[in-house]
Amino acid sequence: MKISIVVMMADKGVIGFDGAIPWDIDMNSGLFKFSTFDKPIIIGRKAFEARGELVQNSLNVVVSKTKFFNQINCITVCSPTEAINTLEGMKLKNKEVLVFGGESMYRAFLPLSSTIYMLRIHQSFEGDAFFEINPSIWKPTMFAPCVKNKDNPYRSEFIIYKRRLSKFPS
Ligand SMILES: NC(=O)c1ccc[n+]([C@@H]2O[C@H](COP(=O)([O-])OP(=O)(O)OC[C@H]3O[C@@H](n4cnc5c(N)ncnc54)[C@H](OP(=O)(O)O)[C@@H]3O)[C@@H](O)[C@H]2O)c1
C-alpha cells in the first residue's frame, strides 16, 4: 500500500492555529482534487472534528482513542498502525492512501510515506501546528502555480514531492 501526505502549508511551516486551519481555501479544488479524488484518507480526530464533514468520495479512517465516528464511508481506528492494518485488510480498488492531517498524523505517517501533495501558500499566518519537509529526503517533482481568485486570494502553488530513493528510515 502506498501512503501519501496531503497538506496545505504556509510560510514557516504553519499548517494550523488554535485547532483550525488559518485560511479558507477549499482542499477539494483544482489539482488537489485531481490528485486526491477517490482515495481512502486517514485523519486525526481533531482535524476530522474541525473539518466537520467527511472527505467526499473517500473512505474516511479517523484515528482516535476517545471517540467513534462510524457511519457510511467512515470508520474509527485507535492508532496509526491499526489504520494501516485495517486498510491493508480491505480489498480496496485504490492502493494509495492519503493522510489528511493534522500535525500528529503527519508526524506518524511521514516516515512511511512516499509522496507529498502540498498546497504551498506564500503568506504568513500565526500558527501552533507545523509541517516540516527535509530537502535531503524529499524532492519536488512537480510545481503548478495556482490562480488567485476569490476562493484562494493568496499566491500559492501545488507541489508534488517524492521521497528520494533509499531515504526510508530503516
Ligand atoms: N493545513 C493542513 O493541511 C491541515 C490539515 C489537517 C489539519 N490541520 C491542522 O492541524 C491541527 C491539528 O493537529 P493535531 O496534531 O492537534 O490533531 P490531529 O492530528 O488532527 O488529531 C489528534 C488526535 O488524533 C488522535 N491520535 C493522534 N495520535 C494517535 C495515536 N498514536 N493513537 C491514537 N490516536 C491518536 C487523538 O485523538 P483522541 O484524542 O480522540 O484519542 C489525538 O487527540 C489543527 O490546527 C488543524 O487545523 C492542518
Description:
The chain has a single domain (2-163), classed as Dihydrofolate Reductase, subunit A, CATH 3.40.430.10. 18% of the residues lie in helices and 31% in strands. The chain contains 4 helices and 10 strands.
Short description:
This protein has 170 residues and is an alpha/beta fold. It is built from 4 helices and 10 strands. The protein has one domain (2-163): Dihydrofolate Reductase, subunit A, CATH 3.40.430.10.
Q: What structural keywords apply?
A:
170 residues; alpha/beta; Dihydrofolate Reductase, subunit A; eight-stranded mixed sheet; two-stranded antiparallel ribbon; 10 strands; 18% helix; 31% strand; globular; binds NADP nicotinamide-adenine-dinucleotide phosphate
**Small-molecule components bound:** NADP nicotinamide-adenine-dinucleotide phosphate
Share in β-strands: 25-35%
- What's the structural domain tally? 1
Distance between the termini: 18 Å
Helix fraction? 10-25%
What integer is the average pLDDT? 91
**Count of DSSP helices?**
4
Shape: globular
Sheet with most strands: strand arrangement = 5-4-3-6-1-7-10-9
**CATH class wording:** Alpha Beta
Structural class: alpha/beta
What's the CATH H-level superfamily name? Dihydrofolate Reductase, subunit A
**What's the architecture in CATH terms?**
3-Layer(aba) Sandwich
CATH topology: Dihydrofolate Reductase, subunit A
Strand segment tally: 10
Radius of gyration: 15 Å
State the major sheet.
8 strands, mixed
- Extract low-pLDDT stretches: none
Listing every helix as H and every strand as E from the N terminus to the C terminus, the arrangement reads: EEHEHEEHEHEEEE
